Amino acid sequence: MSSRRAWQRLMNLNGGYLKYYGSYSNAQLQESFPLTYGSRAASLPSEIANASLYVLFGNNFSSTRPSGSGKGYQIDAAMERKRPRTIVIDPCYTDTAATHADQWIPIRPGTDAALVGALAYEFIRNGWIDQKFLDTYCVGFDAKTLPASAPKGSDYRSYILGEGPDRTPKTPEWASRITGIPVDTIKALAKELGTTKPVFVSQGWGPQRQANGEETARAIAMVPILLGQVGLPGTNSGEHEGNTPFPAVYLPVFKNPVKASIPVFMWTDAILRGTEMSRTTDGVKGVEKLSTNIKMIVNSGGNTLINQHGDSNWTHKILQDESKVEFIIVCDNMMTPSCRYADVLLPDTLGPVFPPYDAASNRGCRAVRIENAENGFDVYFNGGSPFVPRREGKDFTVMAAYGGAERAPAVISVACGAGRVVLSGVHFEYAPERMNADDVWQAPLRSVLQKSEAARVAFINDVAEELRLERNFK
């Protein structure tokens, strides 16, 4: 049960609420990649270990994915297995550029598409494109695959070579004036991309956070498409590195009778001019036009009201005018700036915890400290990594271990007061058929869980027994 779904359930039972679509994080990628690939297809971080070249556009995973159990760890784990040459293209000398890059290429913010245009120009002129891949899997690269309904000269190749309507060749010289990247650097990058296999290209969420950011996202996707570096070991679609999705069971929220939905970023517009917002002018979905302005806001578990939204001064003026928004509820676990605008402020929790241990930090990694174990020792772990007992205890039971000679603990049971605590660095509840054979997170338990469904059930029931729960998992 998440607080968002609990609020949605409450509102649905009381007449419904105005929905939103998209996200502050990656709304443009969310819309543009399905138009390019049919989905948001992306390779797992583990594929980086199979690449010879790793190129990141505005992707600072060391800062944006830093947790001990997140994607940053997965990328580091892949690069420890085999480290490809790494090039970071970013306006800033980021933590990722400083700690992982063999080359940092600074670029003017928002000009990635121009750089890609010049790379494509070099790929085409030097014969580095994968013509067979483009002919087989792509529509609209050149005139012969352009749909009959499309205007003549609107194919991608004509656009890049200046044979389309704008009559502007996307040369390195053209791109250099826009991006600030030297011509020789653009040509060298194009050659390295065009002559190295396999290539893993990814983008962060920064490049697409701008007007027309959908086209920036799609432009970056063209790099692996032109080179045929998609769907092969050590390659990627040009998206952010992928995740392994797992289904979850959530609190039922029932049906929302309100059909209208607005873009997530336009809630301030809906406060001021909601009745003017329509399907054609503002991307309203579900109805042709909104019937009312927003008069009440529930902000749960996020600092969206002021910190995440754009133009904070303008937003502040809107929220302070009680004739516009008449009632604001904020529910959070800390006093964020958004809390200051609440008419009713409700506390929230940080999530599930097992007393008697609490969360701490250990060099940026998730950690657990056993406070009153019978034999008294601390246990630190980094999700997806081994548990490390700082002092050995007599009742430290390893329930599952990683492979290799070390047999490092992955799931452990520890005496804790009058009971026990089971700690897992991996998700043992994952169904075997959903486990990825190359995912380092799931490696420790694969041999247990993929034997049979009976073995999986037996293992989870063993965990339940350690917790003195009823053995009734099915």
Rg computed from alpha carbons, rounded to a whole number of angstroms: 26 Å
Query: What is the averaged pLDDT score?
Result: 82
Class from secondary-structure proportions: alpha/beta
Oligomeric composition of the shown chains: single chain
Q: How many distinct beta strands?
A: 16
Treating each run of at least 4 consecutive H or I residues as one helix, how many helices?
A: 17
| Largest sheet report | 4 strands, parallel
Distance between the termini: 21 Å
Q: Per the principal axes of the C-alpha atoms, what is the gross shape?
A: globular
Task: List unreliable stretches of 5+ residues.
Answer: 351-386, 426-435, 466-474
Strands in their spatial order, largest beta sheet: 4-3-2-5
Q: Classify the beta-strand content into a percent band.
A: 15-25%
Measured as a percent range, the helix fraction is 25-40%
